[in-house]
Amino acid sequence: MFVCCGTALLTCHSFEKEVPLLESATGHSNQSLILHPQKRSATWLTRCNLANVSICREGDSVTEKCCWALQPKSCSSSTKDVSSVVIEELNMYGVKTTLMFVITTLVSKASRAFNGHSASSKLLVVGTLTLSSGGLVAYSDSQVDVSKTSAEVKENDCKKKRVVVLGTGWAGISFLKDLDVSAYDVKVVSPRNYFAFTPLLPSVTCGTVEARSIVEPVRNIIKKRNREIQFCEADCIKIDAANKKVLCRSVINNLVGNEEFSLEYDDLVIAVGAQVNTFNTPGVLENCHFLKDVEDAQKIRRSVSDCFEKAVIPGLSEEEQRINLHFVIVGGGPTGVEFAAELHDYVKEDLVNLYPTVKDLVKITVIQSGDHILNTFDERISSFAEQKFGRDGIEVQTGCRVISVSDKEITMKLKSTGEICSVPHGLVVWSTGVGTRPVVKDFMEQIGQGKRRILATNEWLKVKGCEDVYALGDCATIDQRKIMEDIDTIFKAADKDNSGTLTIKEFQDVIDDVLERYPQVEHYLKSKHLRDVTDLLKDPEGNDRSEVDIEGFKSALSHVDSQTKNLPATAQVAAQQGAYLSKCFNRRQQCEANPEGPRRFRGSGRHQFRPFEYKHLGQFAPLGGEQAAAELPGDWVSMGHSTQWLWYSVYASGSGLLAFYEFRPFGRVLTDASQPDRKKKKVVVVGTGWAATSFLKNLKSESYEVRVVSPRNYLSSRLCYPVSPMDSRSPQHC
Ligand SMILES: Cc1cc2nc3c(=O)[nH]c(=O)nc-3n(C[C@H](O)[C@H](O)[C@H](O)COP(=O)(O)OP(=O)(O)OC[C@H]3O[C@@H](n4cnc5c(N)ncnc54)[C@H](O)[C@@H]3O)c2cc1C
Known about the structure:
With 734 residues, the protein is α/β, with parallel strands linked by helices. It folds into five domains: 2-138, no CATH class; 157-274 and 436-479 and 567-615, FAD/NAD(P)-binding domain (3-Layer(bba) Sandwich); 284-433, FAD/NAD(P)-binding domain (3-Layer(bba) Sandwich), CATH 3.50.50; 483-563, Recoverin, domain 1; 681-733. 32% of the residues lie in helices and 24% in strands. The chain is built from 22 helices and 38 strands. The strands form twelve sheets. A seven-stranded mixed beta sheet has the order 15-14-13-10-9-16-28. Residues 166-172, 189-192, 198-199, 201-202, 235-236, 271-273, 291-292, 335, 437, 439, 473-475, 569-572, 574 line the site of flavin-adenine dinucleotide.
């Protein structure tokens, strides 16, 4: 671990080993510790984003007890750039150039932030790199100046507008990250007191990445904002738009006092995400696993392990073993496909060594109702994924709709023939898209959107039919205004001389506003390979026209609205929307005086802000075996081994929020197992506690065929070490 504390460089030996000790000493698994060399005091490192490279402030002192884990390696008083110091250290350890490049970019980002801050709020940059594993995080810290005197703060408080934010996911956190909290009284409500980096959730299911590495506590984020944000760990159970308040209920058990409370707002930001969509399929809620949250991923991890444990219980027929090891994934979208690929790697690379007797009985099936998996991707990617899965032995059943799931079987209907068939399973993961949360559904009823499937906002993310309420991320969709609804007013506004016809010049004068207000025009031009908007006004033979009347204008633009696109439910969209909305909030007064948006074709003047514009950074699908497929902006497609890296850089540079990757830091580092020898004496060990483990560790197991019987397949609930890796000779475990 490299710790750069001001200009001092420290090294923590065997950091991985110390982590549990630090955790137990401090009680906080998501924070690391750093020793300040001059003051001999320890400083909490607020781990900015999930893992190993962090930007942080000096903060509270902590107990001496924790300090022994950190040993100063070298202290430098030079004024070298922080990144170069870190890079030098990395070079010493022979880190790959590619990784270096990404780290350099990230660290230089960090050092820029460092330079931009006043001395009193000195930033620390920490880079951690475990050589066998490696990891990196990028985080762009808030640019908002938080250095206000208490008098200023108090005076401001009286005028501050109250903003309530619901949710701490991509949209909510991205909104809070850049919001000028000195101008608002901000309260955040969420049942989750952490932010989760969802793109890596599938990797948590198989232990490639540890759950704690993909979460960032909300309290850390608040701390970075000078604690000017209040957080309540609660569910919002009702939005009362008429009275501008929300009713919330605490999610913490055994709360002393009233668990319900209400918060009044001037502005409400709804960023509650979506829930799984079961399409009301019987048995899904009761018998399937989901992959929406960190807890879900951890549950899947345990259940996969359980399936293997069940399969090796003595006395099972081969057929029973096969059923226990049949993993079914419903949904061939990015999440389902990534999970299938992760599971395949996990089984082939690790579990076969732990459970060699059943290694050939494992089956993974992906059920997809459409004709192809990854059908929102380019065709080339979808067929690349299907071929890869074919080679890996992952069965893909397309054109099948699941009609029920029991604890033993999954029943589906083949779309082509209408035939119904049932397949026994060991575990089902349901990953078929998203649905609206009850609190949002109820709100939609109140504001006259009850018949819609998803909450609608305008292009400025303001909820339609409701004042001062904004919705972003997966819980809402932008209802893009159709150009044909405004065609008469656009014509009128452009026809400056009221001649009843539009010249090209007149049309050109309103083009920028039209393109900004109706992004579908640009999509349409692209789809028709037209270079200029005025090309739309050409006659049917493609000849230029000097003027068009209203009918000609309408017919020229009549197909444009067909290119209106709904934005996907992705982190990219949510994060960009959060960042956009905070910018609008920060510049409210400024833009009230000088509106910056497009002209209002209905009504006068300009819109206060530019509408939200989504920048697509591409989409990515890991396919296992270090292979991935990516669709990049500009219709580029990339497939194969190198593609994995593209994804990290997209998140690092694009979202500006965070990016990281850990190469199996703790999990999936498993040892070889050998088949039990029939001639050996059999030893049965009952239990996996300290005594049994110590016995196993020292037993010369070459001489014995060892079986361990225990309800627990790990040593300690705290450390969760699987039994087999503890013993390099891998006893059989039941
Ligand atoms: C396994 C998986 C992998 C993914 N991979 C990618 C990917 O690679 N790239 C990509 O772009 N997208 C990916 N996504 C999609 C992405 O995670 C979502 O689009 C994104 O999380 C949406 O952000 P959000 O803020 O709208 O919702 P969320 O991130 O879901 O956050 C919602 C927040 O609201 C809180 N909340 C819920 N109910 C309430 C309530 N009643 N009151 C208050 N708060 C509430 C939740 O606790 C949570 O904090 C993935 C999703 C999953 C599940």
